[in-house]
Amino acid sequence: MIDKLKNFDTQLFFCINEKHNAFFDVVMYWASHKWFWLPLYLTLAIFLVKLYGKASIYILLAIGMVITLSDQISSSVIKQWVQRPRPSHEPDLLPYIHLSKAGPGGMYGFVSSHAANVAALTIFLILLLPPRYKLLKVAIVSWALLVCYSRIYNGVHYPLDIIGGILVGIFSGFTVAIFAKRTFIKKEY
């Protein structure tokens, strides 16, 4: 059963990874680059400060908590426990993988920290933001999906690495959002 699952995961990886071109090579490289998204993060921070006023300090701290939680669970716990090599570190697969200019990444890929972190932030913001911000929520989900897809496209994660990371992110985002709503977000804005 495990071998069939790994085989399916590898086939799905190649199905996504082999469909590349010069335009999307650039797009997906930058979609995975953490500093590229800094303007988005700053814009979100400014928006949250305007929306929540004084309470925004707690919300920004909660965002720090949610990212730290998802990153530590994915990188320091699960990756070290499972130790599944990334496809880019599998000698038998390497000749067939299309890698971005970012390179092969660290040794282990399960679960994807990129996927965990963007999913955690996405879930946190979806649960935090008032219902009237539906379009913003759709944009945030689209951003998260782009980042997750780029990890497979760039050759550094299997699809199950991404799914595992998303699950870690959902857990982290949901946990911190519930804590935040019960602790310091008292009213609907």
TrEMBL record:
Segments traversing the membrane: 35-52, 59-78, 107-128, 135-152, 158-180
Pfam families named among the record's database cross-references: PAP2 (PF01569)
CDD domains: PAP2_like_4
Phosphatidic acid phosphatase type 2/haloperoxidase domain ranges (all copies): 58-177
Keywords annotated in UniProt: Membrane, Transmembrane, Transmembrane helix
SUPFAM superfamilies membership: Acid phosphatase/Vanadium-dependent haloperoxidase
GO molecular function: sphingosine-1-phosphate phosphatase activity
InterPro entries: PAP2/HPO, PAP2/HPO_sf
Annotated protein name in UniProt: Phosphatase PAP2 family protein
